[in-house]
Each structure stands twice: as structure tokens, then as C-alpha cells.
Amino acid sequence: MARSKTSKKWLDEHVNDPYVKKAQVDGYRSRASYKLIEINEKDQLIKPGDIAMDLGSAPGGWSQIVAPIVGDNGKVIASDILPMDSLMDVTFIQGDFTDEAVYERILETLEGKGVDVVISDMAPNLSGVKTTDQYSSIYLVELALDMARNVLKPGGNFCAKVFQGVGYEEYVKDVRSSFSKVIIRKPAASRPRSREVYVVGKGFKG
């Protein structure tokens, strides 16, 4: 089947992307790894000994970064609807975390402890209809924020990918209501033409 001009352009851009090439050399599963590396260097979201939760974790690019930072005294719980190949020192739970059974499994893994940081690089399956895709993406980040509010310790941190558009300003305002400091980041590894930014919340009010 012939590729459309758009998909060919994306494929060419992807293959020639310096971060895609760098990820292959460095052994990371995703170019998104570099987004989290940059955010964490600037905002110190993740520390040794932390309990971290990675939502929408597949293929594992973010969990790969988090596990060595939290170290042996920390814990990484990753969850996604899609399967994810296992990673050392990462507990992966497959399923929709809004499903009660999956949510209960996540809570069991926490063993009654609070979480220090919740991160989310989730994005919806795109339909190509801009308004529909925007509503879907805002819905996902709202779910991530709900999860953060349920599991974070007071003072905990949050980071989620958000697409600018309808609902974006309201979402940032909502995050501000739960965190003492909110920063918007656009990492170098994020493609310039992409509407994605990362909303970073520090100091969960609990």
C-alpha cells in the first residue's frame, strides 16, 4: 500500500531525527527518554529512594530513566494498556489504570505507601480530527492528575505531557490548585512544530 505524503514525511523525519539516532546508540527504548532527562535536570522531580509511578509507560523510555535514579531503595511502578517488555527494577502492570481491578493491583504494589512522583507521557490514539484528538488528550491528562491526587504524598511531584489547545489553560489552572509550583517545559527533544508541552507540578498540597 502506498504511503501518504504525510506519513512519508513523518517517517523521513523520524528516521533522520537526531534523538531517535541517539536513543539507538544509548540503548533507550524511546526518544522521549531525553525529554524526561532534561526536565529532571531542571526540576529535580525524581530523587534516590523515591517511589515513582509511570503512567502510559510503554515502550518503557521513561521507566528506563527513572529506575536507576530511584535506585535499590526506591520503586518504579509502570502501567499501560499496551504491553511493555520487562525492565530491571520496574514493576509493570498492564491494563487501564481507571479500571477498578487494575487500580487495585497498583495500590497493592504500593503496599500502603504514598508515591513521591507521578509521571505521564500518555497520548491518545490519534483519529486525525484535531478537536476530537485534543479532547482525548485532555481527558488522559485529567486521569493522570486524578491518579496523582489519589496516590501522591504531600510535597510530591507530577509531570504530564499536554497538548496545547482547547482545555489546556483550564487544565494548567487545575494543576495549580493542587501544587505549590507549576512550570511548563518544552524539552529540546520535543519536535518544534509539536503542540506538546510538559506540565510540571512540584510540592503536592495533599
TrEMBL record:
Localization of this protein: Cytoplasm
Keywords: Cytoplasm, Methyltransferase, rRNA processing, S-adenosyl-L-methionine, Transferase
Superkingdom, taxonomy of origin: Bacteria
GO molecular function: rRNA (uridine-2'-O-)-methyltransferase activity
KW Zinc (keyword) present: no
GO CC entries: cytoplasm
Enzyme Commission number(s) from the entry: 2.1.1.166
EC category: transferase
Residues the entry annotates as binding S-adenosyl-L-methionine: 60, 62, 80, 96, 121
Signal sequence, renumbered to the chain: none
rRNA processing keyword on record: yes
Domain named Ribosomal RNA methyltransferase FtsJ: residues: 28-204
Catalytic machinery residues: 161
NCBIfam families from the UniProt entry: PRK11188.1
Task performed by this protein: Specifically methylates the uridine in position 2552 of 23S rRNA at the 2'-O position of the ribose in the fully assembled 50S ribosomal subunit.
Family in the record: Belongs to the class I-like SAM-binding methyltransferase superfamily. RNA methyltransferase RlmE family.
Family annotation (HAMAP family): RNA_methyltr_E
Protein name per UniProt: Ribosomal RNA large subunit methyltransferase E
Organism: Photobacterium swingsii
Taxon lineage: Bacteria, Pseudomonadati, Pseudomonadota, Gammaproteobacteria, Vibrionales
